[in-house]
Structure formats: C-alpha cells, structure tokens
Design a protein that fits this description.
Blueprint lengths: L9 H11 L3 E2 L1 E6 L5 E6 L2 E6 L2 E5 L11 H6 L9 E6 L5 H6 L10 H5 L3 E2 L8 E2 L4 E12 L9 E12 L12 H4 L2 E3 L5 E3 L20
Antiparallel strand pairs: 1-11, 2-3, 2-6, 4-5, 5-10, 6-9, 7-8, 9-10, 11-12
C-alpha cells in the first residue's frame, strides 16, 4: 500500500502515527493560567530538541471545535494572552495511572492535579507547578509556538520551550549526568491505549561498529 497523506482521513492519520512511531516518551505538562489556575495534562508527542540551548517541546492538538486546549491556552506567550511558561515532568511506572487520569477533559480552571492525586509543587524560576512525584522535571519558558492548522479541529501545535531549571533526584544520576534507567523506570506510549516499560534494553556502539566492522576513522 502506498498512500499520499491527504488520502488518509485525519483520525486515521493519527492512528497511523501513534502506532508506527513507538515508543514515545510522555510529557506531563503543568501550566498556570493568567488568573493563577493550574492545569496538568500528558502528551506523547514530546521530545528533546537541543542541549545548547536546552530545548524541549510537545505538541497539543486543537479540540473538536478547532480551539486551543487548556495547556496551550495557558503556556502560549504573554503577547498572545498566556503566561509563557510550563513544566514537564517525566512519567514513570509509579505515576503512570495517575498521569493517564490527568488526561480527563475538565472545565477550564478545574485542577487535574487534584483529580489524579498528583502533587503540584511550586517551581523556583517560573509560575507553573511541576509534579512532586516525578523524579525528573523541567521548568521551561515558552520559546515559540508553531501552529500547523490555526482554527482547524485536531490540528497540532508545536510548543518549544527553553529549559531554565531541572529538578532531578540525585539517586538517578552519576557524575556525568547519565540517568540510571533502572531507577527512573520511565513509561512510554504505544498505539491506542497501549503503554510500555523500558526494562528490555541493549547497547550498541555508534556507526560501523554497530555492524561489527572497524571504523574508517
């Protein structure tokens, strides 16, 4: 089968992407409204983009009416009416059920932290809270928002943030900031309602050495 993307209905495109691009890390995004109301939501369209400067991003979709969901409404830049900040906490085996519960669509201003039983912890440099139960969290200032379909139902919006502070459980790292995956116990998102643990791992050298060949360098 060979299909052009426009031949595939939007909902089926979504199913294809989340089933093919796996596993995906999960960002548990904390935001605050201009009136000080907190919000929490998980996103699996999420990744790190740069270490210099330190940049991460996630992609909330518009709702069925083509409007911004609460997270984007809160974290977009101040000149667009938002607060311009957000946090990302990492989802783990210990928190995943509560993280998924935070995806419940609540009226704007109602706290998903309270619904999910997760603890909002005040950030040091920004106004948005992070999840106390997560062993790693990032405080971010919104750098840019790229809208792929303004006003279009289901269209994505890429939120890129500059990390200004990292909260990290000391037990997870060594002196070179390598994170111990056995202690982190991160959870990834698969297709549909599927999730995966990160316990089955292997290591490979980079480049030709991965094929068992000597490097030409």
């Amino acid at each position: 089968m060979h299909l052009r993307s426009e031949q595939i209905p939007q909902r089926l495109r979504y199913n294809l992407l989340i089933g093919a691009i796996v596993p995906r890390p999960i960002a548990v995004v904390g935001t605050v409204s201009p009136k000080g109301l907190v919000n929490l939501a998980p996103f699996s369209f999420f990744n790190a983009f740069s270490s210099e400067p330190m940049m991460i991003g996630f992609a909330p979709a518009n709702n069925a009416q083509g409007e911004e969901k609460d997270t984007l409404r809160n974290c977009k830049p101040p000149w667009e009416g938002g607060t311009g900040v957000f946090t990302v906490s990492i989802a783990t085996e210990d928190t995943i059920r509560r993280v998924v519960a935070a995806a419940e669509e609540l009226p704007y201003g109602e706290s998903e932290f309270e619904l999910a039983g997760l603890t909002p912890t005040p950030s040091i440099d920004i106004g948005a809270p992070y999840v106390a139960e997560s062993p790693i969290a990032f405080e971010c200032e919104t750098f840019n928002v790229v809208r792929f379909g303004l006003g279009q139902p289901g269209a994505g919006n890429l939120v890129i943030g500059r990390v200004v502070r990292v909260h990290l459980d000391d037990a997870l790292k060594n002196d070179r900031m390598h994170i111990d995956p056995d202690l982190l116990r991160a959870v990834g998102r698969m297709g549909g309602s599927g999730y995966t643990r990160t316990r089955d791992r292997f290591e490979l050298p980079m480049g030709r050495a991965a094929l068992g060949e000597q490097s030409s360098a």
